[in-house]
Structures are given as C-alpha cells and as structure tokens.
Amino acid sequence: MESGSGAGAGAVELSFAAGSSFDEEEEPVSTVPTRERSLPPRRSREIARESIALGAGGGPLEIARSGGRARKVVRSGGSVGGRVVAESGRASLTAGEVDSMAGPEPRADLVSQPDVLHTATVESDFSLPQAGDHLLSGGAVAGPTERAVQFRVQASAGTVGAGGLGDPVGGLSVGVSAPAQSIGLPSVHSSFWPPWASGSWGAGWSPVPWPMGGAGVFDPASAWGRGMGRGGGPADWWALGGVGGAGGPFGVPPSGAVQLSGPCFGLSSQVFAGSSVGREAAATSFQEQVQRSGGVQTEEPGRRGLGRVVAADGAAGGGISAMSGQRGPYMVAAADGAAGGSSGPIIAGGAQDMVSSVGARRAASGVADARSFMEPGREGLWDLLRQSVAPTTWTRYNAGFRRLFAFLSSRDWSPGHVSETLLAEFVLDSHRAGFSRGVVAGHLAGFTFFSRALGWRCPSSGFLVRRLLTAMARIAPRQPDARQPISHDLLTRLIVELPAVARSRYEVLLFTAAFSLAFFGAFRVGELLVHPADTVGARGLLLRHVQCGDSTVSLYLARSKTDQLGRGRTVVLNKINGVTCPVTALCAYMAVRPPLGLALLLHVDGGPLTRYQFLAVLRLVLRRCGEDPAHFGTHSFRIGAATCAFLAGVPGEGIRRLGRWSSDCYRSYIRPHGIARGLDQGGI
DNA sequence: AATCTAGCTTGATGTCAGAG
DNA sequence: CTCTGACATCAAGCTAGATT
User: Fold this and answer.
1) Which nucleotides of chain C does any protein CB come within 7 A of?
2) CA A526 – CA A608 distance, rounded (Å)
3) Protein-to-nucleotide distance from the CA of A188 to the C1' of C4, whole angstroms
4) The dihedral of CA A653, A545, A271, A52: what is its sign?
5) pLDDT of residue A28
6) CA A438, CA A478: separation in Å to the nearest integer?
7) Contact at 8 Å (CB) between A1 and A213?
8) Which of A6, A268, A547, A596 has the smallest CB count inside 10 Å?
C-alpha cells in the first residue's frame, strides 16, 4: 500500500507565489504564475500594532483601532479606571461602553447598570510603578449621553501546555472588571511538555496499524483506553484512542513555584500576577503573542437592552457595521452577528462616535434583536443562555430570528405568541422566495429558540409547518455530496508533487505535515488549523498539543464538533513507511518550525496556516496530479481516511473511532467509488 | 425493543466586498 | 490580483420521540 517513494529527497527549493509567510531569505524560484498565488500584504497587522494612548486620570482617550480592512480612530472624552496588578509589559486594553445611550425612551434600569456593551481590545506598552497601585481612576465619559466606559487592562502571558486547565487562559487578567481572585492562576505549570511526554503512558501506546491493515501490536491490557479514560477496550487497539476526562492527558500540578523552562516556543508559562519570576516572561511572551495575533484582540460582544447601538458587528479585522441612528424598541438589528467567535464589535467611544461602516455588508434592517424583548434585570440569564450553544449557532439563530421577525412584522403581528398559520405563511413565503428547506428550517429553529427563551408560543413543529417543510424537501431533495475521497495513493502523489508548487523547502515540509495529518488523523479542517483571528487558540491544533516521539506522534484535540464540552481527546499516529508517514512528516516540520505562535501549523513568519491557503495549495497540487480540484475539498482527507480504513479492513467501530464519530454517520464517508451514494453504502 | 425520522445544533464551504 | 472576514447556505452529526 505504501509507495515508499522519496518525494522530497531530491526536491530542490522551488517556490510558489502565494501565502503569507514565505521566508524572504529563501530563494524564490517560482514555478507557478504569480497570478495564482502571491504574497499577501501584512500591513494591516502593522497598523493594528499601533497602540493606544492611555489617558490617565480622566484625560482624553484615543484609540487607534484597525484590522484587516479598516482603521478608524475613535476619540472620546473618557477616562479609565482600574487596579493594575502587573508592573510592566505590554497590555491589551479592553474598552467597552457601559451602556447604550438613551434613545427617545431611555430605560433607566439599564442605563444605570454598569456593564460592557461593546468591547474591543487593543494593546499598548505599559509601565507602572508598582503592582497593586490604583494608577488609573474611573470616570464617566463626558457627553450628553453620559456613558461610562470600562476598561480592562490585560497582560497576557500566554499559556503553557496545561491542558488540564481547559482552554488557554489569557494569563494575567487585571483591571476593573477582573476580581482579584481571578488574577493569575492558582497553580503554575512550569514545563512545556506535559508529564506524559516522559512516558508515563508508555505501555499503552501501541503502534497503530491503520491503515496498513493489521500490522500493529494489540495490547488490550494497556493503560490506553482503560485507566486513561473512556471508550476503552479491545476495540481500541487499532485506533487513535480517546482519552477523556476533565483533566485530559495533561497533568497540572496542584501547586508549585513558578519555574520557566528553557525555550518555550512562544508559549510561556502561566504565572501569578504577583510573581516576580513571571513578570518579565509575561511581558515578553505577551508581546510575542500580540505580534502573532495581529494586534487587535476582541472579546465576546455583550450588549444591553434598549438604546442606540452605534457600532456592532465588527470583524476582528476591523469591519464595523454602522447602526447609528436607530430608534425605538427594536433597535439592535445586526449587532449580534459577530458572535461567531472570530470577531467582536469594536467600541465607539463618546458622544460623537465616529463609526465606520467599512466592511459591513449588511445594512441596518431595523429588525429587533431577541434580547430587546428580555425583561429588565435578566441580562445575566441571557448571557448564560448564549453560552448554551456554539457561537456559530447563536449567530445563526439571531439571523433566523431577524428574518422571521421581519416577516411577521410585515403581517398583523405584535411581538409575542405566534400562530401556526403565520409560521406556515412564512414557510410558503420562503419557498416562493427560493429558500431551501434546510434554510427555512434553520430560520424557524432560530426564532423558536428565542421564542422559548422569551416565553412566546411558537408552534414550529405543528402539523402544517412540518408538512410544508416536508413538501419543500420532496420538491428539492438534497444533492448528494460530490466531494471525493483523497485516497492514500492520492495522498502519496500529492506529497510527491508538493515541491513543484511550494515556494520553499519549508513549505514542502509544512504542507506535507498538514496533508499527512489531515489524512491519518481524519481531521476536520477546523480541528487542524487555527483561525487567524483566534488569538487564544480555542480551536485547532496548537504546538503544545503535539508530542513527537520516535515512532509515534500524539495530538491532543482540546475540543471538536463532537466534543463541544471540551473533554479533549488524544489522537495517536504511528510511524509507517513511505513519504506519507505522519510521524516523519511532523517531526521534519517541527525541526524547522519557527519558535513562534500558538498554532502548530504556521508559516515561517509565524502566521498560521489558513484554510484558504490549505485549500489553495491542495487545489494546485491536485491539478498537478491530474485531478479536478472541483471534486475535492478539505473534507476529502477525512472522507478518504474513512474510505481507506474501510478498504483496509478496519471494522466499522474502528472507523468510527478513527474519525471520532459518535454515531453511524461515518458510513456516508465510505466512498470506494468516489461519490456518496447513501448511508447504507459500504455494508458495514 | 429495534428501527426510523425529524428536529436541532454546528462545522464546512461558496460568495461577496473590501483591504492591501 | 490575492487574501481576509462576514454572511448565507449546505451538510454533518447527534438525539429524542415516533413508528414498527
């Protein structure tokens, strides 16, 4: 099965013309027209690094904010307040409106409550005389609307491989909005490599035969899958295993002194705010993190009830929707649209806010946000409700709510209970407008979600609605998934051809590792790559999640689509022969990977490998292999892995665990003939 | 009890506008 | 012209409830 050809052996350093990260010192010998790929500019990041000027004691505040597409300066006569703990370093400043302005009918109950309306975080060097000092005093923003502004100074030290702590914690977080006990962490993990690197699990790490078809060692008595967590048992022998449990495989000592280990690869230890050992490291690491992050970090947008939303929906890259001027009870419109995790609104400062509409594609619709109908004083409930679903789902539900709200408002409807007749009319209207069944059902789901939260009756599962949706599905049935699997043979060819499209030796190693991991790990692209806007590495493989051994690599998946609670799983890949070997590929890449950034897969300048680039290179090399790129996607690696495992004789349960499926839907990926034909295909 | 199905949730992806 | 981010849509994936 293995070709064993040495693809990269005689490869010269070639170049291609895109990507964000090519080492300028490397000699570009392009074999691909620059039209296909070119160096992306990074000036936006430079702009983003422009810092803020902090006006202490009520002085003027100037925030230069910027991003991928826009740069705006917001001035406001404000002051900041807070108790700053860290002494020096590079801090990010989170600013948010305490509340929205008063509209024609201001709600005093909301206006009076301090809370962050919109926040944005920018960074700045800071140097404070003494930890614990009250350096900056609070105050209200001047202006007719009397908005207070709240800032949080955040000195982030980055994180170390303390998987047991859950998602990376932003290191030191200090300021007015951070209670003292939240500053720093109760314990410090000192070393970069987690304890299991020392081999404590060693007995359980059986070679994984897949997809070689049974060449492995079966050790059912191992700790693998037994002592380490869920899903144990003999069926694990072949598999990638799942190590569950709250702590994950990464041990975190309950206590201990701060001890910085040697080169941290951009991931310094978490340290106490008050730790003298840690401050310098914190500052250094944070600077590094900021540089990697592109400068602007945003927080989850929080919003309050009534008022005028002056800026919302800002992309991390700087897009901001101008929503100013809206009045009345249904004022918010698109403000929540950025809840997708990758972005957050940018603040607008004072009374004369300058708000950019750059990058906004969606015009103000004047349609309500569901939160507008929340009873006063229950905002905390709303915030927690938001956490009950994924950010993407929240965004989508909001879109559904807005669309249905707009439709209902055009009928004789007042906010509140909805009749099934009206819902049926909505379905009919959507059908005539050309929406698919899935889209309409999604809109209904979103509206129903918020209706339930608000106590509105919304019979979206009524007979009429259900039948109409069924009719839509029958009229326009789903198209079969046309994406073809990337077989192991094709993977081999892709890797062999990579040098022809890569710009440098480094990129050959990067994409070889990326493709090999995508296939053998059966990763979703979102599990493999870190989104550029994700500065904390909430998703995707991070450097600290990887452990290379002589014959295995282990990859810790902190969370995934099927692990929303973030229990974590570890994927172990074993060495095989040939150019596709994930262990060899990853180790080769790790040997040249720059000591920068959080993401595992990044360019030589530290920028993360993006989906766009991953797909662009995949398409280039597919074309070079004589394949039609239109038939493949990033998911083709996952489809190929399932298909390949099936053809190699891996049992159904094995395939299920390989791709971390918790249902039988993996069967739709068994596509020995290329195209999906149905769930019963494959006869598993 | 086993199987099927619809509904809900969520990741992947295509398209568009804008930045550079 | 490429690349990014936002959005809309498609489709994966899970589960509760209905059906057999």
Assistant:
1) 1-15
2) 13
3) 37
4) negative
5) 25
6) 9
7) yes
8) A6
Check whether residue A119 has its CB closer than 7 Å to nucleic acid strand C.
no
- A253 CA to B4 C1' in angstroms comes to 49
A35, A602, A617 from A508: Cα distances, Å: 20, 12, 11
- Asked if A525 CB < 7 A from strand C, the reply is no
pLDDT digits (tens, 9 = 90+) for A525-575: 888 887 766 666 567 788 888 888 888 888 887 777 767 666 677 888 889
Q: Establish if A664 belongs to a structural domain.
A: no
Nucleotide with C1' nearest the A359 CA: B18
CB A509 within 8 A of CB A592: yes
Q: Please tell me the distance from the alpha carbon of residue A166 to that of residue A163, in angstroms, as a whole number.
A: 5
Q: Which residue is nearest to nucleotide B13 (CA to C1')?
A: A633
> How much of chain A is in helix, strand and coil states, percent to nearest 5?
30, 10, 60
Strand B within 7 A of A623 CB: no
By CB atoms closer than 10 A (0-12, 13-18, 19+), residue A273 is buried
A369 touches strand B (CB under 7 A): no
Residue-wise DSSP of A548-610: E-SSEEEEEE--BTTBTT---EEEEEE--SSTT-HHHHHHHHHHH--S--SBSSB-TTSPBPP
Of A341-345, A642-646, A655-659, minimum mean pLDDT range: A341-345
Return the nearest residue to C12, CA–C1'. Answer: A665
Residue at A610 is within a domain: no
Task: Say what the pLDDT of residue A588 is.
Answer: 92
Rounded to whole angstroms, the distance from the CA of residue A588 to the C1' of nucleotide B11 is 30
Is strand B within 7 Å of residue A469 (CB)? yes
Say which nucleotide is closest to residue A481, CA to C1' distance. Answer: C11
Q: Does the nearest atom of strand C lie within 7 Å of A668's Cβ?
A: yes
Question: Considering chain A, what is the average pLDDT of its residues?
Answer: 49
Give pLDDT tens digits for A22-71. 222 222 222 233 333 332 222 222 222 222 222 222 222 222 222 222 22
Which nucleotide has the least CA–C1' distance to A312?
A: C6
How many domains in chain A?
1
Q: How far is the CA of A680 from the C1' of C20 (A)?
A: 20
In this predicted structure, what is the pLDDT of residue A584?
A: 92
Give the pairing of strands A546-548 and A552-557.
antiparallel
Q: For residue A581, what pLDDT band results from cuts at 50, 70 and 90?
A: very high
Percent of all residues in chain A with a pLDDT value above 70, rounded to a whole number: 40
Is residue A418 in some structural domain?
yes
C1' of nucleotide B9: residue with nearest CA: A393
**d(CA A436, C1' C9) / Å:** 9
CA distances from A211 to A151, A576, A577, A646 (A): 53, 9, 11, 9
Residue A624 domain-assigned (yes or no): no
Q: Which of residues 473-502 of A touch strand C (CB under 7 A)?
A: 478-479, 481
Give chain A residues 534-573 with Cβ within 7 A of strand C.
561-562
In this model, does residue A393 exceed pLDDT 60?
Answer: yes
The CATH number given to whatever domain includes residue A402 is 1.10.150.130
- Residue carrying structure tokens 């004072």: A350
Domain with A471, as residue range(s), is 389-478
Residue A355 CA, distance from chain mean position: 26
Instruction: Report which of residues 286-315 in chain A place their beta carbon less than 7 angstroms from any atom of strand C.
Output: 294, 313-315
